[in-house]
Amino acid sequence: MFAPWASKMISMRSSQEIVTALEEGEPGRILDALKFRGVDQQALFKAAREARDRVLGHSAILRGVVELTNLCRMSCLYCPMRRGGVAAEEHYLLSQDLIAAAIERICADPINVVSLQSGETPRVAELAIFATRVAAAKAPDRREVLLCLGKQELQVYEDLRASGADSYIMKFETSDVRLHETLRGEPLETRLSHIRALQSIGFAVGTGSIVGLPGQPLESVADDIQFGVALGTAMLSVSPFIPGERTPLRHAKMGDRDTTLNAISIMRLMSPAATIPTVSALELTGGDGQLAGLMAGANVVTVNYTPSREAGLYHIYRENRFRVPLDHALRVIDLANLSCTEDHMSLPSANRGAIKAHQPEQRTIVEM
Length: 368
Ligand code: 5AD
Known about the structure:
Layout: H1 4-23, H2 30-34, H3 38-56, E1 59-69, H4 96-108, E2 113-118, H5 125-136, E3 144-148, H6 154-162, E4 167-169, H7 177-184, H8 188-201, E5 204-211, H9 218-231, E6 235-240, H10 257-270, H11 289-295, E7 300-304, H12 308-311, H13 326-335, E8 339-340
Parallel strand pairs: 1-2, 1-7, 1-8, 2-3, 3-4, 4-5, 5-6
Helix pairs in contact: 1-3, 3-10, 4-5, 9-10
Bound molecules: 5'-deoxyadenosine.
The site of 5'-deoxyadenosine has 12 residues, from loops.
């Protein structure tokens, strides 16, 4: 005789077992959890939310991003902002005035973190140092200054840190050595050496990967989660692959929304104190994607403060991306039953306060 409640109970028992294993840091169960759907998936999301709320309170962090330039020297096959992907007349480098005005707007809003982002180009270094100084000058309750500028010279990292930057995002994108080199035209190890360099300079580092890249089996997604968690960074993120129109991968399938949400929950369970964003790309996978990310255990939403013309030329994910306005971010945070943290420094306490002294002898050598 078929009893639907019986299969549901078995399912709940096995999902609970897997949740417990993940909380104990058991990487062997990541793949199982990535496949969860239905009641198992709901149990996973609930456990991840509880872990977040237990460790971080029912609070979310708001970041405000200014995208300094869309110039990029890399040619990542998945990225619409790749070299050659943006027409020369569409390239921009924000003026100092526009940057200062955007940072002013961030600081007038209830935003915890000033995030400065760009394509990977040495031409952004001076501008980023300027922007960092402007953002860091918002004393005494200055906000965290978070950078995401791709690989830069070691000296530039040091200058940025000395100018008041607190944190830096450098995603590894995929930990599969062959796939990484195929998609990015650069060895994984190069990227990793920069992550280590940023850590040794005293940045709180964020890293992460893309889910659903062409040629990436689910086992590889599981490996990426294990790899990211093992790096022990303060911030972890995961984004669904979005096939961008002007990229060689434009005909590929979009990354799976459920798998991405499960990845967020798994990261939360394995690294409960991590800062985990609900990325804007989730909105492209269906309705209320960012809300779903928060319901899966994420705790950060990024609001876009790039001037409108330039934001339209900053092609990450795809040309017509979702640009997050403040009211949308506040709405999803509210719907997720979270409140915005009052804290202007969203970093773990170890990374707050005085800039750590540089220790040159411990630095990793970086090949540019
Ligand atoms: N799909 C998903 N993520 C992407 N990124 C860039 N292009 C895509 C894409 N097509 C992400 C990468 C990069 C960040 C700025 O945007 O993770 O690090």
